[in-house]
Design goal:
By secondary structure, this protein is mainly alpha-helical. The chain is built from seven helices and no strands. α2 runs antiparallel to α3. It starts with 6 loop residues before the first helix and ends with a helix.
């Protein structure tokens, strides 16, 4: 028996495929997949946002701006004014002139932990969990003694 895929399944497959294509550097195919996603689910805000971002990454600022504007209008029409404001700020940052974008890219990258630091952090986590478990066990034992009426 052949089952027909639902729109949600198709949308998920297109979004996943677009992400894979984008990671592989095939931006044209990723944009095509996202256009299909928007076509089958015109109300899906994730598809619109990813399409706008894909256009921006590909250097097509006009199409990215158009897609973000459409996305923001939809949020506003649904009464999601806070989300629309956030998306407007995100779009302004993403589509900023190249000189500003370069400054953002030139920001220092976060430091990676050394092997010793990672090991120490794991041990600290284990110690915190062990301490919390011990305190919990002590509280439970005290509550049981108190409930039984025995001496503390």
């Amino acid at each position: 028996m052949i089952e027909l895929a639902t729109t949600g399944d198709e949308l998920a497959a297109l979004l996943s495929g677009a992400a894979t294509l984008s990671r592989a550097g095939n931006r044209v195919a990723a944009i095509a997949a996202l256009l299909s996603a928007v076509g089958i689910a015109p109300d899906d805000l994730t598809a619109h946002r990813r399409l706008a971002a894909a256009y921006a990454v590909a250097g097509d600022r006009r199409s990215a701006r158009r897609e973000y504007d459409r996305f923001i209008e939809r949020l506003e029409s649904e009464g999601s004014l806070d989300a629309a404001g956030i998306e407007r700020s995100y779009a302004a940052t993403l589509l900023a002139p190249r000189s500003i974008a370069r400054l953002a890219i030139a920001a220092p990258t976060p430091h990676r932990l050394t092997t010793d630091q990672a090991f120490a952090l794991r041990r600290l986590g284990v110690a915190i969990v062990a301490t919390a478990a011990t305190v919990t066990a002590m509280v439970i034992a005290g509550a049981q003694i108190f409930a039984s009426g025995g001496p503390l």
